[in-house]
Hints:
Blueprint: E1 3-9, E2 15-20, E3 26-31, E4 37-41, H1 42-45, H2 47-55, H3 65-74, H4 82-93, E5 102-103, E6 118-120, E7 127-128
Antiparallel strand pairs: 1-2, 1-6, 1-7, 3-4, 3-5
Helix pairs in contact: 2-3, 2-4
The protein binds zinc ion (2 copies).
Amino acid sequence: MGRESGAICNNCGVRFAVREGGGFLFHLLHCDGCGAERSIGFEEIGEPHLRYLKGLNVPYAMATAEHDRRVQEHYPGEPISEEKYHRIVEDLCGECDCAGGFRFDAPPRCPECRSADYRKDPDGQEIFYD
Length: 130
Ligand SMILES: [Zn+2]
Ligand SMILES: [Zn+2]
């Protein structure tokens, strides 16, 4: 689900690595102000993650399918929607140093000029980290 690829800023020309999506065990969010990354582990999220899994009718990921199925069958908490879950996770991530907030749908930004306008680096390597 997670992927890192090379990018070139359309505004200032700087090359940088863009990471999108999360992994099996964490989410990756970006600041809606400056584009800084914040990763948050499912362990750190705790109960809301279990309630979200319970609300899913399918495993969250193939690698965790066994765990996810056990949660769906046995976890006693009330299921929550993805929308509600995302809001809880965004709250848990707190505030960025720039006073922005970390959001699931905020784009990565150029580390130099903070532009979210970039193109794929044709010489860049694409790495799938799970
Ligand atoms: Zn830039
Ligand atoms: Zn920020």
